[in-house]
Design goal:
Blueprint (H helix, E strand, L loop, with lengths): L1 H15 L9 H27 L6 H21 L2 H12 L12 H4 L7
Helix pairs in contact: 2-3
């Protein structure tokens, strides 16, 4: 089984898969962050409702919680700017707000980027 997996992966890697036609850039990362800004709070509200409903006796309480959480999530998603979201995430993760300091020059920072 392992030998078959090895040769299958080798064939697919060398003959089938190739580099993407459109290289990854900061636009893709920016799009995903803004997409998650809108989807994550509403998705979290929906999944809480989905998993709590079978185990909760009063189904209307769970539904009211869904409505309330969805409204709060929508307010946070559509009202709070993305810069505040990222700052809050960095604070929660214990990282500084800026990943590259102002003293670091381009010649040192260029080695952080992937080569193409």
């Amino acid at each position: 089984g392992i030998t078959l997996q090895y040769w299958t992966d080798k064939y697919l890697l060398l003959r089938w898969h190739h580099r993407p036609l459109k290289p990854a850039s900061h636009h893709m990362a920016r799009f995903m962050i803004s997409f998650l800004k809108y989807v994550a709070p509403l998705g979290f509200s929906f999944t809480c409702w989905l998993f709590l409903t079978p185990s909760w006796r009063a189904k209307s309480e769970v539904y009211n919680g869904l409505i309330f959480n969805a409204m709060v999530g929508a307010i946070f998603s559509f009202v709070i700017p993305l810069s505040i979201w990222t700052s809050a995430v960095f604070v929660c993760l214990g990282r500084p707000d800026k990943l590259i300091s102002d003293e670091e020059d381009y010649y040192k920072a260029q080695y952080r980027w992937p080569t193409e």
